[in-house]
Amino acid sequence: xxxxxxxxxxxxxxxxxxxxxxxxxxxxxxxxxxxxxxxxxxxxxxxxxxxxxxxxxxxxxxxxxxxxxxxxxxxxxxxxxxxxxxxxxxxxxxxxxxxxxxxxxxxxxxxxxxx
Length: 115
Hints:
Elements: H1 2-5, H2 11-21, H3 29-37, H4 57-64, H5 71-81, H6 87-99, H7 102-114
Helix pairs in contact: 3-4, 6-7
């Protein structure tokens, strides 16, 4: 851990503590977006925000909060999901059958068949 390597001083936690004690924070787009993506677990709470180079924020957001899926990845995921009698979907329907009343289960099964 960094505590052992750095003689008991972890730069990450030192910076985080300093940020909590600060009145003004200066952060880049990446750190701001990481904070947003993690539900405000990176930066301390803030009331106001000034965004420098705001015209780049849309591109930074798209880059930070999106991902690409290949056709092979999508096909593999759909195979894992399975149908109403197999895969993850089948397993979920088996569990649902045990806890839903018959009318609710039939409605859910119909939705799964049409999906």
